[in-house]
Structures are given as C-alpha cells and as structure tokens.
Write the structure tokens for this entry.
Amino acid sequence: MNRISAYIVFSFLVTLASSDTVISKSINIGANFEYKEVSTALQIVDRFDTINVHPGKYLLNNFLISKPVVLKGIGKPVFDGSGKNQILLIRSDSVTIEGITFQNAGISFINDNAAVKLDSVKHCKVINNIFKNNFFAVYLAETSNTKISGNTISASSKRETYSGNGIHLWYCKNILIENNSIRGHRDGIYFEFVKESVIKNNISQGNLRYGLHFMFSDKCSYYGNTFKHNGAGVAVMFTNNVQMYNNKFIENWGSASYGILLKEISDSNIRNNLFYKNSSGIYLEGCNRISIFYNDFIENGWAVRLMANSMDNKFERNNFIGNSFDVTTNNIKNYNVFKNNYWAEYKGYDLNRDGFGDIPYRPVKLFSLIVEQNRPSLILMRSLFVELINFAERAFPVFTPETLIDESPIMKKIKHDKASQTAKEFWAFESAQ
Amino acid sequence: MKELLKISKYQLNDVRRSKWIIIYTLFFFAVTYGLINFTKEPSKVLITLLNVILIIIPLVSIIFGTVYLYNNKNNITFLSAQPLKREVLFAGMYIGLVLPLVASFIVGAGLPIIIYIPLFIEYSGILILLLFAGIMLTLIFGCLAFYVSIKNEDKLKGFGLSIFVWLLLSVLYDGLVMFIMYNFSEYPLEETSIALSLLNPIDLARITLILKFDISALMGYTGAVFNNFFGGSWGIYISSVSMLFWIIVPMYFALRNFRKKDF
C-alpha cells in the first residue's frame, strides 16, 4: 500500500515537472523581431524558456548566462566576439546552446578566452554549432553531465602560443563529446582531471600540437575517433583505466609526432585501432598492464616503441605490416608479452597447418636497438651492412631482448571484425562499470 | 673521333653478343615488373628498386667491367699496335662497357615503369633521381673496374680486388661509419656523418634517396640537418660534384696506368 502511494506521489511530481517544460515559452530575437539583442531577451525570459535567435550578427563581449535557457539558432546566426574577449560565459545549469556560429573570441596570453565557456555547471548541451577562428572554442571547467556534440570547430592560427584548444575540459565529470570535427587549434581535444567521460566519433585533424591531449583523466573512453595529421598526434598521460576502441591514428608524421604517446598509463585497453603512416605508432613509457589487442599497424616508421620501464603489457592479435621498424626498445630486458600477432616480415613456416608459425618471431631488430640509442645512425638504413647484422642477430640473438619474442605468430593477416567486436566489448566494459 | 666511334661500336657489338647483358636487362625487368604487379604501390616499388640498385649495380658493374677488360686483353694489345692514341682506345673501351650496362638498366627498370606510368606520376622526381643514381653508380664502378684490372696483370688478383672494393664500399664502409657513430655518440656527429657519406658513392646515393622517402622525420634533429643539406641547392651541388669526383679520380688513375702500361 505504502509503495502504491509513493508511486502516485512520484507520478504526480513527474507530471508537475513535465508540465513545467510544457508551459515554457519561446522568444524570438533578431532584426525583424521585438527583441534585437540577446541581453534584453535574457532579462525577460523565465527559467527553461527558449530564445530563438534569428540570422544576423550579434556582438557579444563576455556575455553571462546565469539562468537555465535554451539558446537556439535558426538559420545559423553569428555571435561575434570581435577578437577582444570571450563570447559566452555560462554560469547556470541546464543551458542548451544550439545551431549558432561563434567567431573571433579574442586571443589572450592571460585569460583562456573561449567562444563558449561553461564554468561550474551541470546538465548543459552544446550542440550543432559552428566555431570559427576562436582562441578556445568550447571550454568546460568543473562541469558535469554535459554533452558537446555535432559541432564544427576550426581555427587558422599558425603558432601554438596564438592558439587555444578546440574542446578544453578541466576538472569535469561525465561529459559526452561526440560527432565533433575539430581543425587547426592548438590541441583538438584537451582533458585534464576529467573523470568517466566519453569521446566518440570525433574527427580531430590538422591541429598544431595534439589531436587529443589527455592527462590525469581516469576511467575515460574514446572510440570511433579519427586523429589525422596533427602536429604531434595524440598524447595520453598519467591516467588509469582508459579505453581506446576503434580509433584511427593517421599520418601524424614528424620528428616529434606520435600516433599515441602513452606515458604513465595503466590498466587500459587499446583495441581495434588503426595506426597508419605515423612516425611512431604507439610510444609506451612507464606503462603497465595495457592490453593492446586487434590493432592494425600499417606503414609506420616505428609501429611500437616500448620503453624498458613498461611492464606487463600484452600485444595480441595485431597486424604489423610495412613498418620501417615493428618493435623497438631501449633495453635488453623485457617484461611484456607478444602473442599471436601477424608480422608481415615473418619468414617462418607452418608445417602442421594450424595457422600459427612453428618458429618464434623476434620483432626487435638489432638495427632498431642501435637506432634507439643513437638516432643519427639511422642514416645507415637500407644499407647492406645493416641487413647483414640484422640477419646475424636474428640467427644468434645476443643484444636483442631474449624474452621479447612472439612464440606463435599468426601466418595470415588477421581480419578484424571491427564493428561487432568493438561494440560488444565496449558495452561489456560499460556494464562492468 | 672516328676511331673512338669505331672502337666503341665494335665493343658494343661484342658486349651485346654476350648473354650476360641480356640476363642483366631481364633481371631488372623481372624485378621491377614483378614488384609493380605484386604491390601496385609505387612507393614500395621504388624503395625495393633502390635496394636493388644500391647492391646489384655496383656489384655487376665492377665485376662485369673487370671480366670485360681481361677478356679484351688481346684486342687491346692488337689495337695498341695501330696508330691510335691510348686515350681514344681507353675511352672506346670504357664507352663499350658502360653504355650497354646503363642501357640495360634503363630499359630493364624503365620499361615496366613506362607500362605503369600513371602509378608513378607523382613520384617522377624520385624516379628521375633513382635512375640518375643507377647511371652514376654504373659509371663510377666501371671506372673502378678499369683501374683495378689495368693495375693488376694477374686476373685472379684483379678479380678478388674488385670484389673487395665492392665489399668495402657497400658493407665495410658502413660498418666503419656505425663504429664511429657509436663510439663518438656524445659528440654532435651531423656534419661528420654528412662528410662521411660524401666519401662513399653508394652511401651518397642511398642517403639522398631515403631522405626523399620521408625517412628524415624519423631521425629528428639529424634528419633535419640532412634534409637541409641534401635538400638545398648547395647540397645537390656538392653531392653532384662528389659523384663526379668519384668518376674522375679513378678514371684519371686508370688512364695514367693505361698510358704507361706495356701490354
């Protein structure tokens, strides 16, 4: 009985709450409407009202939104910061910003000026906007349960100091970043002290520094993203429990450029990713217990650079094809496991036809070891001398790590059934949480 | 001039008749054609072709050249009795050797590339450089072969020495470079390694070409230094001069010995 009355009270409350949204009204602003400016409209609207912004150019200088409203652009109106300051500062929960073009948030060397800054708020949405030539585009500080999706973000700065980040998160929790396209900023997506957030199906390319820069952000996952042609690729540092599924790391090429740079990462998964034409595919430093499964490493300079302070990482069922160096390390000791990978350079045989090679494969060549310690000696690459010492070392290993060995390499290229496998594993991970 | 043409023509016919030059052409054709067919990726074809060029061309040029001169000993003795300048005789012999080698390389490697020319259009710069490197290496190792075989009367010794010269320039020299780099790794070695690479024609060809394949990004600072040097106009000038130097110096000494030699 008691339960039933509680249910009745609850449903009454729900009706009340929903009726609140039903009676919320909307106000039009624009050149041909009663209200011309966002500020006047904001003064008269009630909580949870919608402001329909019609086409036109609105000059906004650090404009504060302090009540929960929906700011909805109809036909891409422009909010211009005139290159001076930030454009919108959101200090209220449950604000939605949709369909607006933001441009010219001012460059500053003191403040992190952003087109949209969310400061200490919850339940906000920034969706389907266009950001052009802003210092920072979307900036979230101490914010939670917020969604940033479908935005097109671009900037054209040439120097890192004159450029902010595309999507910048600091001390946030439970943020969903999906379907955004980011180009030409300093870092495409920047995470610092973020918890339990998801980065999904974004494209981050042509950024000056990192496509994704990720620090102290435990239990975050990113999947389905493409990081292409960024100055330094992707960096993930000082974090536990990162899940990386189904991403593409493409053409991050340069002397200090990485597909992913992993530093001090532990208990994480890197699965079903594609690493194509990066100068270093994965660089691991001080990383522990990472599962690197089902990835494709194709035509990278180095596919895997495994520093000796990394332990208990597992590399299984990956494809290594056409890399200048498959695996390199800087020590004779190795505490990581390589198992059942496909190595295009494997020259072994499979007599019993079980699909696994009968002789082990040593992915570390002597020359790659030499290069790791003495970079200039790379000018000897493709010399006959190098081929000879590699051959000799492969026949009688002396310098290369004895335990860095794939005991049963797979004979044929592994076809990774990306869609189904990844989705299944991802949801398994989600439900386990 | 007339004599030069006559000698060259005779020697060309002679070389043409030998089955080795046909095999050499077929080898390049088979390798290039096979590579293009297998991979369909021009960058891979060019990289593998580079490996082949750097190893096979010097080896074949120097050994074929040595054998050629020893085989033509009677011929040279006979022609020496004629009213001919020794320089003309030498030049005729040299052209008779390198022209078919260069031609068979260009035909063998070039024909499959021409068949698949649409694949290679964006790599035309590298392609030209590659062919140029192949031609230069043929000319250089032809000269070295002449020097060795004129200097040594004993066939076996000359032959062994030729192989040693090839081994020295393609393997041992790089070993020495690595030794130097390893032992002096505390010092900035960029300029030194540029200088060292200029002293070996095979290394020079190799480095100029691998830098074109974006390897420079892997090398960090060294790569940047190398790219600045070999990519700039000064670098191209200096490396061309160094290549020419490698033709002129052995040729000069070979010719000096050839002039004095009592056949």
User: Anything to note?
Assistant: The mean pLDDT of chain B is 87. The interface with chain A takes residues 44, 47, 50-51, 54-55, 170-172, 174-175, 177-178, 181-182, 185, 189-190, 193, 197, 203, 206-207, 210, 214-215, 217-224, 226 of chain B (CB under 8 Å). The radius of gyration of chain B is 20 Å. DSSP finds twelve helices and no strands in chain B.
